[in-house]
Design the sequence.
């Protein structure tokens, strides 16, 4: 090696990995051994290791040592890639997206924001002051710091990047949103699922997990849980907050993705270590690409500072549109009407399914979580009718006692009985011949 600086050592290791001399999973010698071999200080080697770890080339596993990181996971292995429709369908209820016809009209908002000269410097505050003031007034708890990012998943990605390290234990709900599980997989977290009941994450099971596995973070969906539709009650939030008070090193991350279309009121654990994500894609439009993140200043600063090296900030034009939609009486009325429409659609389809002996839940949001005798058979049966739903398996950290599929009921505006006939036929496919039956709620979440 000609260059024995930290940068030169890091470059040499990177070339060895590219050439295959150091294969994936290879354990590197200790810092002291490398330093002795190269005739440099251990500090220099440690700096090289840190730079490669930050770049994702190496993974440090505590006392186990430092290893060559695995390459990017192929797309077909992501849970998220398993959720969509396969092949042509006439009715895609797998998407989990809002009904376009129920989104507020942006025409007047775009006109009212004027010529769009909202940025005078690249170092302007990342959030429009008027929008930040409004968001703080809507926030379900006191918050130290707040910023805006490009949607709820962008928020989760950036929070995970700031607070979760390889090998950290992270607690999530079981079932959970597949892209969250994918994000945690990419950083090498050890994910533990805690079951739900009708009020949210089960307190006794959370306490047991925290006692057994010191965790870096707990991820929750406080309202319109995707996929089950459970909304956390204020009483349950207080119980969970009390438990977490006994584990001061754990960060709480709340993904309130449903926002203003959720029927339940906003709720938060409200602890000093709570990061709350407020999404606006479901309520005001996916193309706004906006979510607000509020929480401890150290976490929000880490998210905002890292963004300065990339996109810098979320479009202030879109922020201005969101501010207008949140304050314009007509737009507020449109969102309120959408919330009522989604609730009505859920009730109609749930009632029709229950009449046919199918167990399904969907207390809030736009989805139903439907129990089926066999996931694959149910999806094949529905595909034969031109209907796509999302399989339940990608949502599960560990298998549930029964198979499920997720149905985006928010996209169903009419024909509930006809659809329920098809869904029931698929759900009870292996029970045909025994007559309709009522399936008990699966243990562990309802």
Sequence:
């Amino acid at each position: 090696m000609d260059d024995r600086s930290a940068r030169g050592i890091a470059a040499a290791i990177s070339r060895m990995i590219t050439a295959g001399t150091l294969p994936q999973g290879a354990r590197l010698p200790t810092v002291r051994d490398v330093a002795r071999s190269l005739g440099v200080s251990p500090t220099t080697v440690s700096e090289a290791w840190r730079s490669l770890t930050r770049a994702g080339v190496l993974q440090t596993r505590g006392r186990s040592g430092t290893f060559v990181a695995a390459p990017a996971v192929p797309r077909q292995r992501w849970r998220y890639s398993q959720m969509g429709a396969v092949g042509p369908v006439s009715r895609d209820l797998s998407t989990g997206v809002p009904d376009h016809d129920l989104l507020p009209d942006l025409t007047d908002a775009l006109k009212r924001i004027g010529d769009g000269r909202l940025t005078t410097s690249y170092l302007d505050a990342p959030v429009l002051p008027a929008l930040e003031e409004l968001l703080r007034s809507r926030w379900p708890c006191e918050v130290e710091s707040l910023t805006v990012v490009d949607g709820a998943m962008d928020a989760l990605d950036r929070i995970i990047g700031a607070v979760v390290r390889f090998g950290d234990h992270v607690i999530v709900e079981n079932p959970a949103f597949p892209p969250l599980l994918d994000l945690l997989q990419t950083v090498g977290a050890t994910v533990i699922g805690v079951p739900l009941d009708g009020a949210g994450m089960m307190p006794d099971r959370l306490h047991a997990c925290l006692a057994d596995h010191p965790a870096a973070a707990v991820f929750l969906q406080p309202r319109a849980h995707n996929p089950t539709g459970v909304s956390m009650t204020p009483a349950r939030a207080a119980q969970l907050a009390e438990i977490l008070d006994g584990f001061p090193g754990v960060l709480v991350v709340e993904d309130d993705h449903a926002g203003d279309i959720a029927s339940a009121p906003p709720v938060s654990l409200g602890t000093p270590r709570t990061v709350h994500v407020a999404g606006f894609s479901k309520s005001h439009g996916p193309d706004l690409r906006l979510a607000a993140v509020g929480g401890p200043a150290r976490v929000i600063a880490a998210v905002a500072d890292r963004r300065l090296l990339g996109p810098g900030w979320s479009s202030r034009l879109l922020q201005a549109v969101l501010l207008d939609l949140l304050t314009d009486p007509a737009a507020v009325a449109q969102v309120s009407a959408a919330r009522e429409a989604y609730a009505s659609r859920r009730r109609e389809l749930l009632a029709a399914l229950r009449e046919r002996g199918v167990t399904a839940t969907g207390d809030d949001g736009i989805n139903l979580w439907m129990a089926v005798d066999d996931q694959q058979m149910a999806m094949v049966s529905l595909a034969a009718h031109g209907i796509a739903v999302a399989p339940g398996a990608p949502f599960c950290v560990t298998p549930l006692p029964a198979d499920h599929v997720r149905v985006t009921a928010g996209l169903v505006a009419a024909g509930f009985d006809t659809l329920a006939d098809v869904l029931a036929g698929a759900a009870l496919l292996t029970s045909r011949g025994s007559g309709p039956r009522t399936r008990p709620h699966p243990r562990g979440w309802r």
